[in-house]
Specification:
Helix content: under 10%
Order of helices and strands: EEEEE
Structural class: mainly beta
Number of domains: 1
Largest sheet: 3 strands, antiparallel
Strand content: over 45%
Number of helices: 0
Radius of gyration: 12 Å
């Protein structure tokens, strides 16, 4: 579940030290997302979660 896409490595990888954050969506609705680091290159990775 903690898999995301690293833009720098151009591959799907496990998000290291993933934290759940909330972000502003369309219409002022809060959306849940995972934020962490790529285990290979250290770039910040981000994955938007579903509503459920």
């Amino acid at each position: 579940m903690t898999e995301g896409y690293c833009v720098k490595c151009k591959a799907k990888k496990q998000i290291a030290s993933a934290k759940e954050v909330s972000m502003n969506g369309k219409g002022g609705v809060k959306r849940k997302a995972l934020k962490g680091k790529c285990p290979s290159c250290g770039t910040t990775m981000f994955r938007i979660l579903g509503k459920a």
